[in-house]
Amino acid sequence: MRFIGITGGVGAGKTELLAYIKKHYRCEIYLADEVAHLVKAKGTSCYEMLRDLLGERILREDGEIDRGAMAERIFGEEALLEQVNAIIHPAVREYLLQRLDRARKDPEVELFFVEAALLIEAGYKELADELWYVYAGEEIRRERLAKRRGYSGEKIANIMENQLSEEAFREHCDFVIDNSGRLEDSFRQIDKKLEAFSWRD
pTM for this one? Predict the structure, then answer.
């Protein structure tokens, strides 16, 4: 079984490519953002630490953490953001390592994918067998984010400023998927890369 990390800039199209992989290959796929929500659910140690750090005002009426309230609480507070990341990132990593260990024992799983914008920064290069970089030109990504997510130009610029450069992504990744054009072209790149693995129609 191969453990593959998938990363790339916002708007590069990672979600669509992973949906294709999930449909056609014997794999498990985890999105770091989704795992981050799971590990801070009510009753977890991560939840308790975040509540103690940020206070009761980040909680919804049902006691779960309100994502919007939490984001508002840490906005512009660099030191606080670092403390939050120091709580969430290890919990996400532990969750994924447990799932990886389980997947390695399952003969049905040939590929194990983890997608995260901060994959490189979070040290997954040392854990994964290889890292893939989903590339799309900056203008294309801007257009997609404005059209599909309704993001303002300012919001897009802020997100992009806080992500690695194209050069850094390419330097740290083992394989690049150019997702600037048609999805079919990207699918062909994936199929060629994964031709040694089982195909599902």
Answer: 0.91
CA distance 145 to 156: 7
**Letter for the amino acid at 18?**
L
| pLDDT beyond 90 at 118 | no
**Cα three-residue angle 124-82-79, rounded to 5 degrees:** 160
Alpha-carbon gap, residue 133 to 170, rounded angstroms = 7
- Whole-angstrom CA distances from 161 to 62, 64, 158, 164 are 35, 31, 5, 8
Which helix (H) or strand (E) segment holds residue 183: the answer is helix 183-193
Q: Read off the pLDDT band of 75 (50, 70, 90).
A: confident
Please give the CATH architecture assigned to the domain spanning 1-26+110-196: 3-Layer(aba) Sandwich (3.40)
Largest CA distance in the chain: 51
- Contact predicate 21/29, CB 8 Å: yes
Q: Which residues partner with 199 through β-bridges?
A: 25
Residue type, 100: L
The tokens of 181 are what? 């054009």
DSSP calls for 5-60: EEE--TTS-HHHHHHHHHHHBSEEEEEHHHHHHHHTSTTSHHHHHHHHHH-GGGB-
Residue where the block lists tokens 């992504």: 169
